[in-house]
Amino acid sequence: MNKQKIVVFTGAGISVESGIETYRGDTGLWHQHDIRDVCHPEGWHKDPQKVLEFYNQRRKEVAKASPNAAHLAIAQLESQYDVTVITQNVDDLHERAGSSKILHLHGEVTKVRSDLPSDYHLYDIGYDAVNIGQRCESGLQLRPHIVWFAEEPFFMEESIQLFAEADKILVVGTSLQVQPAASLILFAHSAQDRYIIDPSPMTPPKKFDHLRGNASDIVPRLVNSWLSL
User: Fold this and answer.
1) pLDDT tens digits for 29-44?
2) How far apart, in Å, are the Cα atoms of 109 and each of 33, 59, 126, 206, 208?
3) Among candidates 210, 181, 182, 184, which has minimal Cα distance to 198?
């Protein structure tokens, strides 16, 4: 029998409880750094070492973090469902929690690539630092494998298809403000169960139920209910 399909769409809020700073919000990284300096092609061309240092620090932060109860519960869904995690996060906490199918729309901080718009070489560096002078096999400077502002997200077409085919959709820890990723929920045509988990009061998207609370509390409860069906 074919397993039901679940799409789990996650943002920075799911990793906050693991100690990873958000980018937005009153205390987010964008209140500490100018976006154009560290997360834009202009900043990269102006001062690449500054950009590399910013992401070196992000790697240190991720290395110290551990998956929380929400990450672990999402991975448990695979015992009964066909689960794809589509995440706006660049950390590797879903991987370390045990999820096997993960699409990183905005890249991965544990990877770097050659400084080319396409046909680039991709390298998994874990939590190591990268500095000026470290080059790919073609002699080009390595840059973070991150989607910067003014760049296109990865896996959008595949994600649209997954949303359209999902039987259940779970949205966790995203403000749904970052486009075009936030528009993916508009393609949830056939899902019977649609939940968004967020600790703040909100008007949920059409046909979504809002479960208010922290991800590490609410996600395991919802997962347990789905696993008991």
Assistant:
1) 655 778 888 999 999 9
2) 17, 6, 8, 33, 31
3) 210
Give the architecture-level CATH label for domain 1-20+67-106+153-229.
3-Layer(aba) Sandwich (3.40)
Whether 7 contacts 170, CB under 8 Å: yes
Where are the CATH 3.40.50.1220 domain residues in the chain?
A: 1-20+67-106+153-229
- Radius of gyration over every alpha carbon of the chain, rounded to an integer in angstroms: 18
> At 46, which helix (H) or strand (E)?
helix 41-46
Q: Shortest CA distance to 18 belongs to which of 95, 126, 101?
A: 95
- Catalytic residue numbers, as ranges: 106
Q: How far apart are CA 97 and CA 211, in angstroms?
A: 22
Architecture field, domain 21-64+111-146: 2-Layer Sandwich (3.30)
Paired tokens of 88: 């706006």
Residues 58-111: tens digit of each pLDDT: 999 999 999 999 999 999 999 999 999 999 999 999 999 999 999 999 999 999
